[in-house]
Amino acid sequence: MGQPSKVGRPRPRGVDRWKVVAGIAVLAMVALAACGGGGDRAASGTAHKGSGGTLRIAMSAGNIPFPATPPNEGYEGYRFVGNNIYDGLTRLNVEQAKEIATPHPALATSWRISPDKLTWTFTLREGVTFHDGTPFDADAVLFQFERVKNPGFELYADVDAPRYATYFRYFRTWKKIDDHTVALTTTQPYAWVLWDLAHIYFPSPTAVRKYGNDNYNAHASGTGPFRMTKYVDGEVMELSANEKYWRGRPKLDKIVLYPQPEAAARMSALQSAEVDWAEVPSPDALDQLKGDGFRIYLGKYPHGIMPRFNMFRPPFKGNLKLRQALNYALDREGTAALINNVGYPAKQYVYQGHPDYDSSFPGYTYDPAKAKRLLAEAGYRPGELKLTMGYTTGGSGNMFPEPMMQKLQADFKAVGVDVELKPMEWNTLITVGLEGLDKQQWSDIDILWASPAAGMTPNGYSTTFLCERPGGLPNAAGMCNPDVDRNYLAAASSFDQKQSQADLRAMMDAALKDADFLFWMHDLNLRVMSPKVHGYVQPKSWWVDFTKIWVEE
What cellular component GO annotations does this protein have (predicted)? Predict the structure, then answer.
């Protein structure tokens, strides 16, 4: 493997990095750009071949995601690596932009549910092969379930298993019926099996056996639209088109991924034509990028910044008024202006218009007078309360933590609360979420930054909302609201979609009234691309369909 060129070093462009500009004008501009962003003609109107090319991407991740099952680096790992190298039994239909993506057939062509709603029988797609040429079949499905669910299995993946715990949580047994049929039985009637299976990837059993779990990442082999042809940890990953992909060969010839945790570095790489796609570049540069001919995409999708209170101990444990006070202390409009309106204020966990949005609750607005009153009722005089907030300095889907945190610190100071900011690397923050704020090494954190895919999938709520995590562990932030749990579990066991959504709205209502989160910002999924990139669809999802994209060369 050769060494990649170093991309993304910031170059001075005469831009004031966090300059606040006219947000309304920018939003109008980007909306106009997005309307024509996926066309197959250049500005001159000349038709193009409609396929091919190499797409170079500057990711917000601090490292190339491991091509494990699952990948790391949060949902950015799923978006760029997981969904390109691998398939699940189901997939989310992210090739469209009209509605929140839902599960569709993938490696499974069909399924049926037993009368007791416990056993799901899947018919597998025939003729599918892994990138190493070996067949995908029922044995491959069972191999991955054993590898993640059975600690006694010879190739049990002790690193991957905890990170996959959410999606394997409700599976009790797995059985081969024949070479192309498997039966999966759940611990209880559970309606979101298809959502879980969209996240569960299947590696080549042959590759895992040959290289072992420790060395598998260097030889990753799935059934997905792209195969890994180059991987230098910390520097670059190259993905080449799978000529035999079961959905048809992707239009792109290659995808090249570069980790660039600094927003200014991603912008510089784009401007210098070292990459064709930049995740969340510096928001103050949108006018300049637009003027340079780049395509700017924004749109509502299920993701936000929703920090979590440490409810294992005081001051937040059992102190509703304090949690409410801090929610009313946030100047969300000011935060949005600071980041050039590439995000917008959150009154609750999901955005207005989302099917789980609780229209019966007005949500939280900026009301410093009310915040001061609630703070006093919570038992604190101005200047008496001092808090520590842990946050990530960058990484997958975290928007712009540094200026946002400085704004939060100022907002809380204005109502008489001092906040010490504790920066940490993205994967460290993920580790905190896995280990929990009750652990000694994290117990000094009062508030923890969180960037959930808020409402992208219904099963996703379980990782932050429920009293108990998989394995019997307590909620990582100590949240335990019986009303939340009851409504979530009712929704998860209901096979009636309308009833399930009503239960989820009731869950939201309970979490809102209990101020279980710091409801702060919704993201608008900013990404900027070269005009040479065609076929891109901006979905209402974290994930993207790369099979329809091509690059003019």
Answer: ATP-binding cassette (ABC) transporter complex; periplasmic space
Give the pair of three-digit tokens for residue 489: 């579990």
For 188-215, the pLDDT digits (tens) are 999 999 999 999 999 999 999 999 999 9
d(CA 79, CA 60): 12
The pLDDT, as a whole number, for residue 49 is 76
Q: What span, in angstroms and rounded, lies between the C-alpha atoms of 310 and 194?
A: 32
DSSP-derived secondary structure for 162-209? HHTHHHHTTEEEEEEEETTEEEEEESS--TTHHHHHHH-----HHHHH
Contact 306, 508 (CB under 8 A): no
Name the residue among 488, 534, 483 with its Cα closest to residue 166. Answer: 488
Q: Considering only 13-27, 52-66, 213-227, 349-363, which range has the smallest mean pLDDT?
A: 13-27
Question: What one-character DSSP code corresponds to residue 369?
Answer: H
Which residues partner with 59 through β-bridges?
259
CB count within 10 Å of CB 145 equals: 19
In order of their start, the domains of the chain are 23-29+51-84+224-299+525-551 (3.40.190.10), 90-210 (3.90.76.10), 304-523 (3.10.105.10)
Closest CA to 120 of 188, 29, 68: 188
Whether the per-residue pLDDT at 46 is higher than 80: the answer is no
Pairwise CA distance, residues 324 & 365, whole Å: 11
pLDDT band at 450 (very low <50, low <70, confident <90, very high): very high
Provide the pLDDT for residue 48: 55
Report how far Cα 478 is from the mean position of its chain's Cα atoms: 22
Tell me how far apart the alpha carbons of residues 395 and 63 are, in angstroms, rounded to a whole number.
9
Report the C-alpha dihedral over residues 343, 488, 186, 151, rounded to 10 degrees. 60
pLDDT > 90? residue 218: yes
pLDDT at 38: 38
Cα distances (Å, whole numbers) of residue 245 to 108, 126, 226, 251, 352: 15, 12, 8, 11, 38
| Measured distance CA(535)–CA(51) in Å, rounded | 9
Please state, rounded to an integer, the average pLDDT across all residues of the chain.
91
CB 397 within 8 A of CB 451: yes
Tell me the pLDDT band of 47, cut-offs 50, 70 and 90. Answer: very low
Question: What tokens were used for 261?
Answer: 């945790």
Q: Please, which pLDDT band fits residue 396 given cuts at 50, 70 and 90?
A: confident
Given a contact cutoff of 8 angstroms between Cβ atoms, the answer to whether 543 and 301 are in contact is: no
Buried b (16+ CB within 10 A) or exposed e, 60-94: bbbbbbbbbbbbbbbbbbbbbbbbbbbbbbbbbbb
Determine the average pLDDT of the residues in 72-89. 95
Which residues make Cβ contacts (< 8 Å) with residue 67, sequence separation at least 6?
81, 82, 85, 217, 220, 228, 231, 237
Distance CA 419, CA 99 (A): 39
| Mean pLDDT on 347-360 | 95
